[in-house]
Design goal:
Number of helices: 7
Structural class: mainly alpha
Largest sheet: none
Strand content: under 5%
Order of helices and strands: HHHHHHH
Helix content: 40-55%
Number of strands: 0
Length: about 110
């Protein structure tokens, strides 16, 4: 298998399933993310922290499916988006590969 494809797959897995230390990377704890202080983080509040957050990732963290994140679910969200930086920074993963590179027929 193409080495670059393996690296790209590893990077994608890290993005989807999170990285250890995600809380430290985001720097935004639950109380800061809960802008209206209702004890929950909405999709809009979460997007205020992770500007490229999509509904799929948010819903993965929302384990009770109420459309809001409690503190435990927010911690899960941080793990899911652990390789992304917060608003104002780049949201690209630390290991990058374009789909054309990953699908290259070059066996090296």
């Amino acid at each position: 298998m193409n080495k670059l494809a393996i690296v790209a797959a590893t990077a994608a897995t890290a993005i989807v399933f999170g990285a250890i230390g995600a809380l430290a990377q985001s720097g935004v704890d639950f109380s800061q993310a809960d802008g209206n202080r209702d004890g929950k983080v909405s999709m809009d509040e979460a997007r205020g922290i992770y500007n490229t957050l999509d509904t799929v990732i948010f819903n993965m963290a929302d384990t009770n499916h109420d459309g809001m994140l409690d503190e435990g679910e927010y911690t899960e969200l941080q793990g899911l988006v652990g390789n992304q930086q917060t608003v104002g920074g780049s949201t690209e993963p630390s290991i990058e590969a374009s789909s054309s590179e990953a699908s290259s027929s070059d066996p090296t």
